Amino acid sequence: MQRMSDLIAEILESPEVASKKASVVGIGIGSPGLVDQKAGTITRPVNIPNWEDAVPIKKIFEKRHRLPVFVDNDANACGLGEACFGAGRGKSVVVALTLGTGVGGAIVVDGKVFHGAKGYAGELGHTCVDPEGPPCACGSLGCIEGYASANAIARYATELVAQGRHKSWLVDWSRDGTPITSKMVYEAALKEDSLALRVISRAGQYLGVAVSNFCVALNPEVVVIGGGASAMGDLLFDHVRREIDMRVYFSPYYTTPVCRAQLGEDAGFTGAACLALSGEN
Amino acid sequence: MQRMSDLIAEILESPEVASKKASVVGIGIGSPGLVDQKAGTITRPVNIPNWEDAVPIKKIFEKRHRLPVFVDNDANACGLGEACFGAGRGKSVVVALTLGTGVGGAIVVDGKVFHGAKGYAGELGHTCVDPEGPPCACGSLGCIEGYASANAIARYATELVAQGRHKSWLVDWSRDGTPITSKMVYEAALKEDSLALRVISRAGQYLGVAVSNFCVALNPEVVVIGGGASAMGDLLFDHVRREIDMRVYFSPYYTTPVCRAQLGEDAGFTGAACLALSGEN
């Protein structure tokens, strides 16, 4: 937080801002954890220990920088960025997913994040697609995060390789102890590696079940998928599209396009800027 | 449609309306099938054959009655009725489910049905909770409709009885060929019948998986459950609540209440009236 705050101070003191060539309307923050957008607090970001109590990040930054501060969940910020300036531009209802360490999600309606009653909506990565599936860090079982995150893809490939019964480029590439990554799975799949293709089809099918659920519940105009594993593109997405075709009963009348995010690592801060520009909590 | 239209004409010609004691602002219709709310058309209601093409119900009724007509899906109308005048009254985000022949669903946000991009949102009964589950009439597999509708509950009880290995009131009550209904399952469960309790716990657990998915995606303020099988009340709902407690990672901070619908069979036409009162398509 200190580093973030110092960087903001640097920008505010820059010649562009000082000379009013650029004007600053506010500060937007995308943060991990449970975010209360109105109160501007963050609770229990899974990967930062000792943040059990709500941290009043909005108040802290407003006090130092004397500008309005807007806070949202990091996945919501990514989704908002893609919906406003990326692959969801101009679309009314956007479902955005990020396949990274976990699976982040956001629902954006008419250019605004859908927050639900208390601000916790959009946690699409914890959609259960198998009630008895593998345990998830969130406490549930069979979350889509356990099948389609970059980590889950790497983990399943590692399990299959460890069985020692398959011929695969991944066996060769990991023989010296190199940990298998989702990028390696993708590279092997490009060489028509059966094991890698099997891993990707499993991830894509489960992801497709979850996306089909979002389609029937939310009828989005587009589903935008970003994050590390989205680099696999159609190799992964075609499985998702097949599940939609099979499962979503209105798909003959209205098929939901599934496409790759466009902003890459810029999605999060683009969305955080959108929060500040919208001027709404 | 002729009968509906004649009934409307009867009301419009009634002394109350003719004497202006009651004023009529419009006609609201809740219909099965794929409804295009803006165009006012209905396509492919599953239980009415030969409606493959879009039927312009709005235009037909407006022409005869010379009043604005508002059309929505029947499940959306039920959910809207409950959200505005029933168990969801005063709540910001309401997820409504109807456990009848199938499982109907609706998402109501600030007193309005959430329609998604093309009007097909809210088909929550076709949330998949097991990718390899039983085939559903919609073409998918493992939809919650196949586990938690009144029909599915009766069907599963019938299957267990047919195995002929269990002692149960349902065995006795169906010996003369009486078909088992979800109401009979409930009545047996009230007598602590193990088979009936098993059937209800299975339905409640799968339903709880789906409801947990709605909680993480939509963070509703309340989940309202109606329809025939909702008569089971806490006997069914306690399983749903347990799944939410276990699966929804923010449930220690914010637990979503699950409660029974209040309007019974009036929910649909109450919601249809809300459509007309809102004056929006």
Q: Could you give a quick summary of the protein structure above?
A:
Chain A has 281 residues and is α/β, with parallel strands linked by helices.
Supply the CATH superfamily name of the largest domain in chain A.
Answer: ATPase, nucleotide binding domain
pLDDT average of chain A, as an integer? 94
Largest interface: A-B, 47 and 47 residues
Describe the largest sheet of chain A.
5 strands, mixed
Order of helices and strands of chain A: HHEEEHEHEEEHHHHHEHEH
Number of strand segments of chain A: 9
Oligomer: homodimer
Question: How would you describe the shape of chain A?
Answer: globular
Structural class of chain A: alpha/beta
Helix segment tally of chain A: 11
Question: What's the arrangement of strands in the largest beta sheet of chain A?
Answer: 7-6-5-8-9
Radius of gyration from the alpha-carbon trace of chain A, in angstroms: 20 Å
The CATH C-level name of the largest domain in chain A is Alpha Beta
Quote the distance from N terminus to C terminus of chain A.
Answer: 20 Å
Unreliable stretches of chain A: none
- Which percent bin holds the helix content of chain A? 40-55%
- The number of domains of chain A is 2
Q: Under the CATH scheme, which architecture of the largest domain in chain A would be assigned?
A: 2-Layer Sandwich
Instruction: Examine the coordinates and then state which fold CATH places here, giving the name of the CATH topology of the largest domain in chain A.
Output: Nucleotidyltransferase, domain 5
